[in-house]
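Suppose a colleague, Dr. K., hands you the sequence of a protein chain of 100 amino acids and asks what its three-dimensional shape might be. Before reaching for any lab equipment, you can write down a predicted structure in token form. Begin with the sequence itself:
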Amino acid sequence: MKEFLVELTTAVPEGADPAEVDRRRAAEAVRAGELAEDGHLVRLWRPAGELRSIGLWRAADESELYGRVLGTLPLWPWMSSVVTALESHPNDPGRTVFAG
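The predicted structure, expressed as tokens, is then:
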């Protein structure tokens, strides 16, 4: 699987029914848990004092990321996203190095 850094910003439409907003937010938490269990959502952060999120996500490719992962989030229709495909860096201190 490939890794992606994804920044998500949610903008609730003006005039949205508060009950619908609450329903979607509750469903979002459930879906995020499912995506974590499936190995797609690895980590999720919220910058201090902001209402956006930054996450480490995994998918086979960008098509799967948008179609079968992010696109299934209940808040997705209200979200804007910035996706950055990631690759390993040779100096990554978390990288496992095998002697051969």
